[in-house]
Amino acid sequence: MxxxxxxxxxxGLALVGGPALAAGSQKEPRTVAWSFSGPFGKxxxxxxxxxxxxxxxxxxxxxxxxxxxxxxxxxxxGPFYDPKYPNPNDNPYVKTIARDFEVSDIDPETGDVVxxxxxxxxxxxxxxxxxxxxxxGNGGALPPDFSTLSKARKGGPDYVYSLxxxxxxxxxxxxxxxxxxxxxxxxGDVTAFWKGQGHxxxxxxxxxxPQLAPDKVTFDDGTKSTIAQQAKDVAAFMAWVSEPKLEERxxxxxxxxxxxxxxxxxxxVSYRRIWRNVAH
Amino acid sequence: xxxxxxxxxxxFRRSPQAKGGFKVADSVAGANPEHGAGGxxxxxxxxxxxxxxxxxxGAAVTIAWPLVDQMNPAGDTLALASVEFDLTKVExxxxxTIKWRGKPLFIRHRTGAEIAxxxxxxxxxxxxxxxxxxRHKPGKAEWLVLIGTCTHLGCVPTFGGGDYQGxxxxxxxxxxxxxxRIRKGPAPTNLAVPEYAxxxxxxxxxx
Amino acid sequence: MSGHSSYVPKTGFERxxxxxxxxxxxxxxxxxxxxxxxxxxxxxxxxxxxxxxLGIQLVTGIVLAMHYVPHVDHAxxxxxxIMRDVNYGWLIRYMHSNxxxxxxxxxxxxxxxxxxxxxxxxxxELLWILGCVIYLLMMATAFMGYVLPWGQMxxxxxxxxTNLFGALPIIGESITTWLWGGFAVDNATLNRFFSLxxxxxxxxxxxxxxxIWALHVTGNNNPTGVQVQSKADTVPFHxxxxxxxxxxxxVFMLMFAAFVFFNPNALGHPDNxxxxxxxxxxxxxxxxxxxxxxxxILRAVPDxxxxxxxxxxxxxxxxxxxxxxTSRVRSLRYxxxxxxxxxxxxxxxxxxxxxxxxxxxxxxIPGLTTFVLLDADLxxxxxxxxxxxxxxxxxxxxxxxxxxxxxxxLEQPASISEPVLSPSAAMPAGAAASPEKRG
Lengths: 280, 207, 439
Known about the structure:
Oligomer: heterotrimer
Structural class of chain B: alpha+beta
Strand content of chain C: under 5%
Shape of chain B: elongated
Strand order of the largest sheet of chain B: 5-6-7-8
Mean pLDDT of chain B: 81
Helix content of chain B: 10-25%
């Protein structure tokens, strides 16, 4: 009887299954075989370093990352982790990276606001002093902060990769408003701007111009710097920024699952042993 | 586990119930505490039960550790656990106070006279005997790095005052000499020397 | 507690304690010696699982409260600090957020079990009602807890739900302003939600104690619905059900661990990783999955006030359930027609949940446009919600009262032990005359 009930339930589920978005649409993101996906996934350190370079040279001009500190780059699982320096504040590479950034500080003698080179303990500085300045510098749009951005979008790194590498010529018949760019992977509704035949294309308008270009960032490890490569690497970097504890979490999880399977087995045998002679 | 075997032997008597109706009071569980339809007494010393119990206890301990460890200093607190200081900021004869790990830190650039006075008193009677040599890095006698908390009850001593020209704590009158040693007053020990190292001739890393 | 205790203190210390504060006796009588029907199946393990979930939420929550800052400028960042900098903070946070979902999975299984086996029927009406109180407190706690991270969904979900009170005539606006502590959801709201979110689980723990006490007065129900009649029907709670609950808990923890370690954000919404912005509304505001059925009921009704009343009514109807079901037979095992209606009820609940996640004018069957009925096309989520809502209320207000009077139930076993001890005693349906048989 329970099975019959489950069958009815499954039928009900099938009826209402399937995505159907009335307002807003986007093309399904292209999937990438990320090194960090799956229960045993790990970040590719070289990829994280390349991704950081893309962030540093392309994205950091407009996007803040204000919940990350420089020392995070040198912690376990991070792009510049060095086992010789378990305390990332001592990591010389991290110190060098930090020194390239300037952060605001108060001069202890005069009380003036001054800029000084950053130390690993500092947060990544905002490229703009406040939200209003950020909007003014980007045509009214606020470049979102990177700290949790990868987790804040459906599709995560797949979405970021598809969006960054997915710009192309808009289909004929689509009027793109000034200051905006069409991207099929951006969630949006372009029906009001569609003058062509048939259904309006999926996707939306994004205020960010295409940022990546072939060889725009030179990779120190010699990897060919195509748009797809840059997009993949910065997407992986952003995934790390959102979830720096991913490797630790999955490693702990594998151990926990194995332990729980064993515990369940022991408890099951114990249960059967205890109930052996009870008619129930 | 205080599992008790079946101690009771008195048989349990119940009046037969009418079919299907549900009696409320009589059948209340717990009316007779004797063990019911359990089968043969499961041997409580079966290895499997001990193993299962031990595994469950192990799981509890494993989850207890993170719950305890989370109260230890977090990553951002540890990031500020060490500080690098540029010594060129301190003039000769001057002392600078910075905040380190939430406490004041004295960095004093001693003159030759102050060093000599400290060494001269190495053998003098004091509550916490210590040579001046032991309180600075070898070859760097001019630099004194001390935690600026009076060892009596925690006030911040003032620079230069007192009978020994070191530091003077105004709260209860502790006098420290030019090596930061307690010479007069209620403080029990010398001003503490933190863990520090010279990264270069002009830079110290404290902590 | 009713019944005579068979606890005998063994050591001197136990005797000393027993004469002053008989906690050991209480533990023995409730958890060790307690006679429990021997035929309880795995649906009965969810009570123990729920107790564990409450413990997990309490412990992880208290630990999180050591690091969380309940201020609009710091809440989001403090949680990210927990995830990144606090030792094992990521583990404790994910346990707490996924633990809430596990808590609701277990409570729904526990409630469906109660509905199926008639555990709400006399003499366990108060047990059921206390359970409904716990469920209400859980919902309030979970709602306020979800606001605390101060993400986009946190904020806008709070706006939607607190605005519902504005639907009440005359007093609505004052109540909403009072709830907010201002003219909109803002820092005052966040701070008080944190205080109440910390408080309510302890209220839940208190009601849980009453719930278990009420259970121990009447004794457990069992899958046959037939009362315990003799010693032969029961086994002591320890070790029989401690080990069975232990096994069920281990399996439940496996599912919990799968979420926490390998897919910790699957049951959440990505928009909640965007810091709250009162000026930007997310494309689709959706509550957490365990509220989706009620959200669907709310949106099914065109009128705002009626929608609110129906949504709360859906929970209120649970409180009066013991008096709606007129059948003298407890367990649906022996009520085949009602059982079929029950399974459809379960499907209706799932359908409501799925509708709650969708937009009201989305098509149920893609590509098909029929005709507009009232305010929407018939092939739309809102109409599906309406049908499912109608069935939900019909099950409680029509099916259960009527079926109890009209259905001829199957023959119940004479006792719990009977079907096991004498297989030949299995009765063909409706054979012998029995008091339940009607017309």
